[in-house]
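RECORD TYPE: inverse folding
INPUT: structure tokens
STRUCTURE:
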């Protein structure tokens, strides 16, 4: 009996010593807020950072934004092929493609995603919540539900806005067409940024006694028909910052030129392509501004501490050939004030 007790005690001591040799279990870490989690690796980690860029559609303005982003990153020390690798994906104006691109970037575990234009930014924001997202050329980030405040982004997303004054655009058109009473606007009904601009245009028009006549489209194939529907009903047409319409602006111009219905726009590249004039921003500069912002976040700055930046530089651009084509006289004071005149 005494031997049995001794054996039992010996076994108990052996198990106790073994238990003492084990490391204590770690308590699970408390989950951090989304903005603290949304940090990329850094080049100092010894790896090439993966940057996904989702561009909604190809047209000169957005292509200029992309080039500016690449140059802004490079000038800030993040040259493609060295510290970073850029994966550009284009949705070709199809909303479903923006979702596929966002899902691809999430699966690839990109260190950062940059979205060019509102539809691309919205798709990425819904899918990716644990990595920084930087948007560019989003007219109204609050209305698009990307941020709740321009000053203090509360998620893993911030960027740059190309919002312009619709009141200033109406004033410009009125200088070319003094008897302006009805202004047509061509826009895509599914683009939040376009809808926001149309509402602001209507508010500005109401103050100045100018009726805004809407002509909305849901697809590129409807552009010529939508333009034709404005013929005889309006004194001029304004194209807002609308990616779908801008990507096929030649369809608008082919109808408008035939009918001598003056066309104005909200971006510089559309003026180069045949619209008469705009107070517009340089989209290459906006892209570069976006790239520099992305670099600061790659350097370690927190997304939540990076306010949305709105472009302040709106300059006058005029296409003299287009004015002649539409039979519109350019006021001398506008010629002198123009940042650039295309001939």
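DESIGNED SEQUENCE:
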């Amino acid at each position: 009996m005494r031997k049995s007790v001794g054996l039992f005690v010996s076994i108990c001591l052996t198990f106790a010593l073994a238990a003492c040799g084990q490391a204590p279990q770690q308590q699970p870490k408390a989950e951090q807020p989304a903005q603290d989690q949304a940090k990329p690796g850094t080049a100092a980690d010894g790896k090439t950072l993966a940057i996904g860029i989702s561009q909604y559609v190809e047209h000169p303005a957005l292509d200029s934004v992309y080039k500016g982003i690449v140059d802004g990153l490079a000038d800030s020390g993040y040259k493609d092929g060295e510290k970073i690798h850029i994966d550009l994906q284009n949705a070709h104006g199809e909303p479903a493609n923006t979702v596929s691109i966002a899902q691809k970037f999430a699966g690839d575990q990109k260190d950062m995603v940059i979205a060019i234009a509102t539809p691309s930014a919205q798709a990425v924001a819904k899918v990716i919540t644990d990595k920084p997202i930087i948007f560019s050329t989003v007219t109204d980030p609050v209305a698009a539900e990307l941020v709740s405040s321009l000053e203090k982004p509360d998620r893993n997303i911030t960027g740059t806005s190309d919002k312009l004054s619709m009141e200033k655009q109406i004033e410009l058109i009125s200088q070319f067409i003094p008897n302006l009473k009805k202004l047509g606007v061509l826009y895509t009904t599914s683009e939040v940024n376009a809808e926001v601009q149309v509402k602001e245009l209507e508010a500005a028009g109401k103050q100045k006694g100018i009726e805004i006549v809407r002509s909305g489209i849901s697809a590129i194939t409807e552009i010529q028909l939508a333009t034709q529907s404005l013929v005889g009903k309006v004194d001029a047409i304004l194209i807002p910052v609308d990616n779908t319409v801008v990507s096929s602006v030649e369809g608008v111009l082919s109808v408008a030129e035939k009918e001598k219905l003056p066309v104005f726009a909200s971006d510089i590249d559309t003026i180069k392509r045949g619209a008469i004039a705009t107070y517009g921003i340089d989209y290459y500069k906006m892209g570069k501004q976006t790239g520099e912002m992305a670099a600061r976040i790659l350097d370690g700055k927190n997304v939540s501490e990076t306010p949305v930046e709105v472009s302040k530089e709106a300059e006058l651009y005029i296409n003299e050939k287009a004015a002649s084509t539409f039979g519109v006289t350019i006021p001398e004071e506008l010629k002198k004030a123009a940042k650039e005149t295309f001939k």
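NOTES: The CA atoms of residues 224 and 251 lie 5 Å apart.
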